[in-house]
Design brief:
Helix content: 10-25%
Strand content: 25-35%
Distance between the termini: 24 Å
CATH topology of the largest domain: tt1808, chain A
Shape: globular
Radius of gyration: 16 Å
Largest sheet: 6 strands, mixed
Number of helices: 5
Amino acid sequence: MSLKPRTDYRFPDYLAAEREAQDVKHEYLAGEVFAMTGASFHQNLIVANIVRHLGNQLADRPCTVLANDMRVRVEAMDLCAYPDIVGLCGEPSFYDEREDVLTNPALIIEVLSKSTQGYDRGDKFALYRALPSLREYVLVSQSRVGLDLYTREADDRWMLTAYTHLGECMRLESLGCTLDLAEVYAKVELG
């Protein structure tokens, strides 16, 4: 996120400007607008691997995974963000008739970078937790084998399960499928 946010936007103003933007993306939080930076090759490769792997499992089911450009609105926190990957089962719910701002993801996946990992693990996760539909939040390292799965429990607590070996397979209950770590990191050179 940019270090020089604008603080004079209301959400409808932000959304109108964002829909007109051609070459840049911005996230919105309570009147502040933050320019998004481009993703690295390995981050894009990880996102593509995950979307392909999950998408293949969901081909004949009423579940969907989307990458990078689907905005997610968290009304309770006055947030609009671009998660790396969102997943949902059943009918999508949108902010308005344009169908470009999703309000009911069941799964959000963020691929960590050095500049965003603190925000993705902390404040951004706290903001996402205000989504009643969100069942699982996954953080993916791009520098080592590492996926952290946060699962919402029945009492609204979040349970962490960490995966650190290429031979492991993560079960995503929100979509009823699995995520094989070897598939996540296919062709990725880890540092």
